[in-house]
From TrEMBL:
Keywords: Membrane, Transmembrane, Transmembrane helix. The keyword Transmembrane applies. The chain crosses the membrane at residues 87-110. This is Uncharacterized protein.
Length: 149
């Protein structure tokens, strides 16, 4: 083998090593993102939906149901076809419950999207950090003797 062939072989091995190191970095960044996205660590940032979002949904559902009380009473009058206030109030209980349940579910949507945004942010932050970290401190270079057979 002459000097040019040896240099070409070493360049080829160097390219292969760089590709393998890039694959290792991408793999680590992906797993870091998934680890943080799935909240497998004990970093308690993701309480937004679990606590505050549910409280907000409860408050907004009560507020909206309160503002819809006239509409609910009109629907009860239409459904029962009665002028008796007791019958109308009894009919309003299940209708109000359905309204409240649907509104409570709908008001959880902003908290779900808020939690998703927080998880994506921290997952991407973790993945970008792991991708940009210096490969010398994370991965050992693959010895050339293991590639050359």
């Amino acid at each position: 083998m002459n000097l040019e062939q040896i240099q070409k072989e070493l360049d080829s091995i160097n390219r292969q090593t760089n590709i393998i190191n890039l694959q290792c970095k991408l793999y680590t960044a992906y797993h870091s993102f998934m680890y943080r996205f799935m909240n497998k660590d004990n970093f308690k940032v993701y309480t937004f939906r679990n606590h505050y979002g549910s409280y907000m949904a409860l408050g907004m559902a009560i507020h909206n149901t309160y503002h819809l009380r006239q509409s609910i009473l009109k629907q009860c009058i239409h459904l029962t076809k009665s002028k008796n206030p007791t019958i109308i109030k009894l009919a309003a209980i299940p209708i109000t419950t359905v309204y409240f349940g649907v509104l409570f579910g709908l008001w959880h949507i902003p908290s779900f999207t808020g939690e998703l945004a927080i998880r994506i942010y921290f997952g991407m932050q973790s993945a970008v950090f792991d991708f940009l970290v210096d490969k010398e401190s994370t991965f050992q270079d693959i010895p050339l003797r293991s590639i050359i057979k």
